Amino acid sequence: MISTYSLAEPSQHKPLPLLLDSPHSGSLFPKDFVCNATETQLKTGWDAFVEELWQPVLAVGGSLLSAKYSRMFIDLNRAPDDIDPAMLSLPWAGCNPTRYSDRGMGLIRRLALPDVPMYNQPLAVEEVTTRIRDFYLPYHQALQSQLDKLHQAFGAVWHVDCHSMKSTGNRMNVDSGQQRPDVVLGDNDGLCSDGGFIQVVEDAFIRLGYSVVRNQPYKGGYLVTHYANPAVRRYSMQIEINRALYMDEAQFAPSHHFAAFQQDLAEVSRRMADYVQSQCGETRHG
Questions:
Q1: CA angle at residue 241 from 263 to 212, to 5 degrees?
Q2: pLDDT for 218-241, tens place per residue?
Q3: I need a surface site. Which of 25, 137, 209, 278 has the fewest CB within 10 A?
Q4: Taking the complete model, does pTM exceed 0.90, yes or no?
Q5: What is the DSSP string of 13-71?
Q6: 228 closest CA partner among 107, 139, 143
Q7: Pick the CATH number of 5-76+136-280 from 3.30.750.80, 3.40.630.40, 3.40.980.10, 3.40.50.150
Q8: What span, in angstroms and rounded, lies between the C-alpha atoms of 143 and 63?
């Protein structure tokens, strides 16, 4: 069986119903994967080191789910039918493309970068269904299972979908050419998260000196909208972090700011955990 994700749970603290997931920090490809893009071009879609940056959440009672395979192979933050039918060798009823597919960034990427097609020929339907079965569904099943377990134990769960973003949008992005803030928090314009929770997260970043924007240009993708149900205390939000804060974007390597930024995320994690704890009405141990 292919290991497509990693799930880390707290070891020193009593678990809290706080689950972070990083669907785009994977960098692996199957050995038989063939595409038109270069290794460097493929890395531009990598949320580099995001799962490492958020490791401190484990020390305060949170859990962390992270993908192992690249979003350039299959994008876990898309609906399973968000597929551009023009990419397939035969018509298939399983396609329901959205604006993401229109921009070449659907479940299966059509473009690695603007004007850089991923593939030289159409993909077989069987190739797509195999990717969904072996790489997409296991991650989503793990996420659903962990959210269900925490919700059953606590009557509520807070899910944070963690990403990184280029410091400047390219032509495939809705904010093409624009300099991005340090942090973008997305809760689908207030429909997916707990208002108190997202305020705590925003305040934590601002207190640390970072610029924070809500829902522009990112409101939260499929993972946020699909797993949120605030009416039954299932809350989801997205955090996008500017890569210039912690890495050399050209070299795809951590910068000298990495350790300090990770410490700042440890403080944000602590604030998250304190809020969740306050809503659960139980005493943490550890």
A1: 95
A2: 999 999 999 999 999 999 999 999
A3: 209
A4: yes
A5: S---SEEEEETT---B--TT---SS-HHHHHTT--TTHHHHTGGGGGGT-EEEEE-B-T
A6: 143
A7: 3.40.630.40
A8: 11
Tokens of 41: 């071009």
Among 126, 119, 112, smallest CA distance to 86 is for: 119
Give me the residue spans of the domains in the chain: 5-76+136-280
Strand partners, 248: 253
| DSSP labels, 206-264 | HHTT--EEESSS----HHHHHH-BGGGTEEEEEEEEEGGGTEETTTTEE-TTHHHHHHH
Which amino acid, 4? T
**Alpha-carbon gap, residue 73 to 35, rounded angstroms:** 9
